[in-house]
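debug: dumping io for the single-chain case to check the tokenizer round-trip. Nothing else runs in this session.
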Amino acid sequence: MADMNQILGVSKEILKFTSPLTWLVVDTTEKIINKTNTVSNNGNLDEMKEEALRQEISLRMLEAQARVAQEISIARRIDTAEEVIIEEFYDKSGEGGIGLNLKEEGTSLGMNASGRSITKRVYTFKGWRDGGLEAVEKMIVKDKE
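debug: decoded output
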């Protein structure tokens, strides 16, 4: 086994100078594998699961905050526009089926399902209503405070 480790070490050193990008990929992959082995051998898998769950929850919260900020921005622009055109189209549909096929050669049973979700939102804002631009400037100043 020592011979194999020596060969790998020499190969990595050669890669470092001949193909730095490939060496970087190999080196990083080796470190990830070693860390995974260390964590699984030390019983820290539960800690990794907790961290993964924590990161997933954090990401969901950020996505929700981004959606809220987007809706607030749209509402503010609607409030200040002279003319607003809104087109919204939502279509959620699905279908499924079950089939039975009986033949002399044998019997087969099958199921299928499909779903479709279409969302289209188009907002068109034209102009500024009287005092709309000033209202936006006030909102910007208030948000900075």
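debug: round-trip ok. The longest helix spans residues 45-80.
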